[in-house]
Write a structure and sequence with these properties.
Pfam families: Glycos_transf_2. GO terms for molecular function: hexosyltransferase activity. This is Glycosyltransferase 2-like domain-containing protein. Keywords: Glycosyltransferase, Membrane, Transferase, Transmembrane, Transmembrane helix. There is one protein chain. The chain is α/β, with parallel strands linked by helices. The protein has three domains: 110 residues; 210 residues, Spore Coat Polysaccharide Biosynthesis Protein SpsA, Chain A, CATH 3.90.550.10; 146 residues, no CATH class. The protein is 57% helix and 9% strand. The strands form two sheets. Strands 3-2-1-4-7-6-8 form a seven-stranded mixed beta sheet, with helices on both faces. Helix 1 runs parallel beside helix 3 and helix 4 packs across helix 10. The chain starts with 14 loop residues before the first helix and ends in an 11-residue tail after the last helix.
Length: 545
């Protein structure tokens, strides 16, 4: 039976930090009062109070963090809250149009604090209490593993390579079910012949156009005595000890699934493969360790090993989900099953980063499990689980808000130029999306990415911002529309921002500040196009169903 998980209370934040927050809030209010003169006393007090509330809100449930982590969470919360109060004061005093920007800036500030807390969880935990020692294989027969490999219209050579590596697994109680939904016989017939050559452990099924039903079909066709279900993707070359390493963890009766990781690409690997590894924060060891600690492991299509009773209790695979493993993982966690993510690389090749790359999958998960993920009083998940499971939706939402503000800057520029009021440009409101969010993405990559990938991870973090934001807006506003080409929007936005900044720079000194903001907004677009020229596919297109 699954083990119901509860939130770990941990230590309360240090009393000295609670005493420091009011002092910092008073200093913040005093600085604003001095800058605004005697008439700004009320707003100085408002900025101090907002900063105090922001810092206190950010510290909720942060008792498991060490001092640097507490400061990493509290200080941005205080500064962002005080800054929004300052923005409101200036908007009411002289720039009423600025108040409209608060609709976008307030949620962006909250999302930035959310990501700061995740960063602190990964860097400054007091201790990691969960231990998963390497277990030896228990005596008695090995539990049978049924490996399911769904595929559609993939190159036969790629599938043969994956099957050959499965044939080399150092595990006896094994069967492999290949579920091919290819349309052309040239795609599936060579795979069927190769399965026949590999022996009776390899069974091939051609399902026609039933790709979404393939995994549930495999549940009905697998061996009756199979105790574990493994999922794999074409192009994944497993190590011979994958199952020998992962199966013994299921001696823990509350463990519902084990998610293994892919090996880091070698130095001579193609740039697209190295970029995929660098851009996917879910593969970074520090992020994996934090998710294991808080029992918030996501399930992905490749290298997952699932306990069969847990899968059956959950009702099988959701055929309506864009990313079925991600949705199943949420159901298993809500039912109280534990998940484990192995940091050791147990496969090579390009393993798509789903659900992290699939915006449609993220939105489906929020619709299906919104009550458990968004309601803090819901008992299906602990607060720490919500925080980590919502990491990718929070980042995607932040990128979408960034994109909205970048687009909004263009008509704002036209209005300012037409009215000859460039000196009244909203520099302060646009600094949050133009400067703080990209800097935070770069710092996140520098602090969390493994050595050798930090520079590439930083570039990839900037490059994913415009395309992931565009994908989220498209999925939210036109979910039935065909997937477009977001790089065209990125190219257009880059040209417009750079052109507007250039014309302002040539127009005189009064427009230089606003021109600098426009150039800062154009930096992620330039990074996206630069990386697209160097590698295919681009970061926003690494999706799998």
């Amino acid at each position: 039976m699954p083990l119901r998980q509860g939130g770990r209370g941990g230590h309360a934040p240090a009393p000295l930090l609670w005493a420091l927050l009011p002092l910092l809030a008073l200093a913040q209010g005093a600085a604003w009062w001095a800058a605004g003169g005697g008439g700004a006393v009320a707003w100085g007090g408002g900025a101090a109070l907002a900063g105090l509330r922001g810092g206190a809100w950010a510290l909720r449930g942060a008792g498991g963090l060490r001092w640097p982590g507490l400061l990493m969470v509290a200080l941005p919360g205080q500064l962002l809250a005080g800054g929004l109060a300052v923005l409101a004061r200036q908007g009411l005093a002289s720039h009423p149009a600025w108040l409209a920007l608060l609709v976008l800036l307030l949620p962006m500030a909250l999302l930035l604090l959310w990501e700061a807390r995740l960063l602190a969880d990964s860097l400054f935990a007091r201790a990691y209490r969960r231990r998963h020692p390497a277990l030896g294989q228990a005596g008695g027969p090995e539990p049978r593993v049924s490996v399911h490999l769904p595929t559609q219209d993939m190159p036969p050579a790629l599938l043969r390579d994956t099957l050959d590596h499965l044939a080399e697994l150092d595990y006896g109680a094994l069967e492999v079910l290949v579920l091919d939904s290819s349309h052309s016989p040239e795609s599936w017939e060579p795979v069927a012949e190769h399965c026949a050559r590999l022996g009776p452990r390899f069974r091939f099924f051609h399902l026609g156009a039933g790709q979404r039903a393939a995994r549930n079909f495999a549940l009905r066709e697998m061996a009756p005595d199979a105790a574990l279900v493994a999922t794999l993707e074409p192009g994944c070359r497993v190590q011979p000890d994958w199952l020998r390493h992962a199966v013994p963890f299921f001696r823990d009766p509350g463990l519902g699934f084990v998610q293994a990781a892919a090996c880091a690409p070698e130095r001579g690997a193609p740039l697209a493969e190295r970029l995929a590894h660098a851009a996917d924060a879910s593969r970074w060891p520090r992020v994996q360790r934090a998710r294991n600690e808080h029992r918030a492991v996501p399930l992905r299509p490749a290298l997952a090993l699932i306990r069969r009773p847990a899968l059956e209790m959950a009702g099988g695979w959701d055929e309506a989900a864009p990313c079925q493993p991600a949705e199943l993982g949420l159901r298993l966690l809500r039912q109280g099953w534990d998940g484990l993510e192995l940091a050791d690389g147990l496969a090579a090749g390009h393993v798509p980063a789903v659900p992290q790359a699939s915006v449609a999958g993220l939105l489906h998960g929020l619709r299906r499990h919104g009550a458990a993920l968004l309601n803090p009083r819901h008992r299906g998940l602990s607060p720490a689980q919500r925080r980590h499971l919502l990491a990718e939706p929070a980042a995607s939402a932040g990128d979408a808000l960034w994109l909205a503000l970048a687009v909004l800057a263009l008509p704002w520029t036209l209005a300012l130029a037409a009215a000859r009021l460039l000196e009244a440009a909203p520099l302060l409101p646009f600094l949050l999306p133009a400067l703080m969010l990209p800097l935070f993405r770069l710092a996140q990559a520098a602090l969390l990415a493994p050595r050798g990938y930090r520079a590439l991870a930083g570039l990839a973090a900037l490059a994913t911002m415009p395309e992931r934001g565009a994908a989220l807006w498209r999925a939210a506003l036109a979910p039935t529309a065909e997937t477009g080409r977001p790089h065209r929007l990125v190219s257009l936005l880059l040209a417009l921002l750079a052109g507007a900044a250039g014309s302002l720079g040539l127009g005189g000194a009064q427009g230089l500040g606003w021109a600098g903001v426009l150039l800062l907004l154009a930096v992620p677009c330039a990074a996206a196009l630069a990386l697209r020229r160097q590698a295919r596919p681009a970061p926003a297109e690494w999706e799998a169903g």
